[in-house]
Request: fold
Amino acid sequence: MDVNENIFKGLEPIDNLTKEKNPQSKEEGEREGENYLEAEIQLVVFTVKEVEYAININSIFQIIKYTEISPLPHAPMFIKGVINLRGKVIPVVDLRERFHSEAIVNTKRTRIILASIQDKEIGLIVDSVTDVIGIAGKQVEPPLPVISGLQIEFIEGIAKLKNKLIIIINIHRILSSSEKIVLKEAPNE
Reply:
């Protein structure tokens, strides 16, 4: 059975995977505030052209299997169009093309990550979703000037794990101001 099938089943929301820390005492809360590097960050890990990336789970409200997308006229090439999710129209961006990769054929592992960017719901096409991980803030390094052809503004940091590095994407910077206007004009219902 595919990892995606184990973690995310169809249209089930993943809100229950976030871990919010509620301090038990004032002293414990003060310790967490003093040392933000010890705070746990929950990340959804996904692949784009065999490179592992992650997005903070707090920005994600659902992950679905790839579905047919209705094109949007006059949109940039990486904005693939819109999907209808339970009566709500959601614009969809192909992260593979946004990251300047050539077009990739969708497979049974292709997913659409549904996230919120500045109060707008958006879908992000990725090759696969592989994991949900929790890491300490101290495991995140600042971004390097260029990584795998990505521009630095897309990158929030690099997660250092025991046996690999994962690029953490800042989804609020995936789109330029003019691209956000195109999406803002897309209908919501």
User: Anything to note?
Assistant: The CA atoms of residues 75 and 182 lie 7 Å apart. The domain at 3-185 is CATH 2.40.50.180 (OB fold (Dihydrolipoamide Acetyltransferase, E2P)).
